[in-house]
Design goal:
Helices cover about 35% and strands about 25% of the residues. By secondary structure, the chain is of the alpha/beta class. The structure holds nicotinamide-adenine-dinucleotide (NAD).
């Protein structure tokens, strides 16, 4: 374990709680939690014996007593929080997605590079042992080539209404999709080349989100073609009826020689010819894995699992998906055109 860090966690929601838990379990100390909802922050602080709570994330980000900051705020605040923390000389770990736009991503990256601090981004799901296994099987030619990776995410209208706000987390294609886009390119060992997507809003008439001025696309079918010739597809909806019971399909990967099916953090089944093998994946707290690697990087040992390059790649895929939905055409993914600085 690296030297004990003192940390500020910005946001006391679902991810804020995961980060406070993981930092504490790793032997570091969370000194301050920031959230507009101070009752929520107080409750989290009490559970993990955190000294201080504030409603002001910028104040917590520049707290003189902390060395590292976890940004677990809504997407629109990733840039201002990261910039504030970096300018105060703190190492910054920001939840995914990186940012809403490349202009925001540039501001974050410049602030981090100018400050010379470490930066990490929360793609913890991609650290699951099942991802490594799929990547190895693919590299060993167990599936042959080309491969088709098919993912599926079906949910009722999200209880966190900001997920449906085009100016908030902007629906599943921005908020959740990036986990899949990263998974596919990791397994294929190849970068995305083009995207074709169709999108709809299924939850148009739902009273729970009627207060939102601009609804995000909540339902889509996305196809991403990779330089390797492999294909990733996602069928996603966050616009389904309350209490919706249809189970999502497990991830499926097929090729001319074989396939795999399952969930990368719990169990995968490998199919080769007529042979079927089940591979249970041991449970792991992936937030501890990612923040442990980040702390090691701060201590000068290794690098954070993911940083700006990966965040920018996912942003480029996301932008291409929206451009394809708007134009009805296949769109090239051009993240290299958006290099920072
Ligand atoms: N890595 C993952 O698997 C994963 C999973 C879920 C969410 N996320 C990401 O984590 C981030 C946070 O999501 P979440 O699910 O924890 O959301 P959440 O709604 O549960 O929590 C966000 C918190 O931020 C607080 N907040 C909002 N505006 C604020 C402000 N101006 N100042 C201070 N506090 C403010 C809210 O009160 C809330 O408690 C998002 O970017 C989301 O995409 C990542």
């Amino acid at each position: 374990m690296s030297e004990g860090l003192t940390v500020a966690v910005l946001g006391a929601g679902e991810m804020g709680a995961c980060h406070v838990e993981a930092w504490t379990a790793l032997g570091h100390r969370v000194a301050v939690i920031a959230d507009l909802d101070t009752d929520r922050a107080e409750a989290l602080a009490e559970r993990y014996r955190v000294d201080r709570v504030t409603a002001d994330f910028e104040r917590a980000a520049s707290d003189p007593g902390v060395q590292a900051v976890s940004v677990c705020l809504p997407l629109a605040l990733h840039a201002p929080a990261t910039v504030a923390a970096a300018r105060a000389g703190k190492h910054v770990f920001t939840e995914k997605p990186l940012a809403r736009t490349f202009a925001e991503a540039d501001r974050m990256q410049r602030a981090v590079e100018e400050a010379g601090v470490q930066f990490g981004i929360g793609f913890q799901r991609n650290l699951a042992q099942g991802v490594t296994l799929l990547r190895e099987w693919a590299a060993q030619g167990r599936f042959g080539r080309p491969m088709v990776f098919s993912s599926d995410l079906l949910m009722e209208v999200r209880p966190k209404r900001a997920m449906h706000d085009r100016n908030g987390n902007n629906g599943p294609l921005t908020d959740g999709g990036c986990h899949y886009y990263l998974l596919w390119q990791t397994v294929f060992r190849s970068l995305p080349r083009t995207v074709y997507a169709q999108g709809r809003i299924l939850a148009l008439d739902r009273p729970e989100i009627a207060h939102l001025e601009h609804l995000a696309i909540d339902t889509a079918v996305v196809t991403v073609a990779y330089e390797s010739g492999d294909i990733g597809t996602l069928t996603v909806s966050w616009g389904l009826a309350q209490g919706f019971q249809m189970a999502r399909r497990p991830d499926r990967l097929i090729g001319p020689r074989g396939g795999a099916e399952g969930t990368v953090h719990s169990c995968l089944t490998l199919y080769e010819g007529d042979r079927v093998e089940t591979h249970p994946i041991p449970p792991q707290d992936l937030h501890r894995v990612e923040l442990g690697r980040f702390a090691e990087a701060i201590a000068g040992r290794g690098r954070p699992a993911y940083g700006f390059a990966t965040g920018r790649q996912m942003l480029a895929v996301t932008e291409a998906i929206f451009a394809s939905i708007a134009s009805g055409r296949e769109v090239a993914v051009r993240w290299e055109d958006y290099r920072c600085c």
